[in-house]
Design goal:
The protein has 136 residues and is mainly alpha-helical. It has a domain at 95-136. It has 7 helices and 2 strands. Strands 1-2 form a two-stranded parallel sheet.
Amino acid sequence: MALLLTPGQWGDAPQFIEVMDRIRVPRPLGGRPRTRPAHVSGDKAYSSRRNRRYLRRRHIKHTIPEPKGQRSNRKRRGSNGGRPTGFDREIYKRRNEVERTINRLKNFRAVATRYDKRAYVFHGIVTVAAIRLWLR
């Protein structure tokens, strides 16, 4: 899991690549940690050329729905628009696990209200809340 704090007015999708670069999963038998997940799911906000190009370049399978506007633009361009994106509804249904985890994190009062002025203190509080959820 990777956490990245940004100002409140920043969107989630532009931070996608930076969050993906921070992922480090230790291997059980030692060695270099894994930095490439087997699969990534996201909502329509993450459906940008930049994010999809990054995932293709790193050979990461992904399930991200294509917004209606992008779909119609691709079809309008004809053969220059490229192929439609692959989309698996069964895998996409599991995306709500992430949303539910974020909601559980917000059940911690210190995370939901963010009284802390310093980012490193708030990052620590979110990390402790995530550890508490993981240990349950």
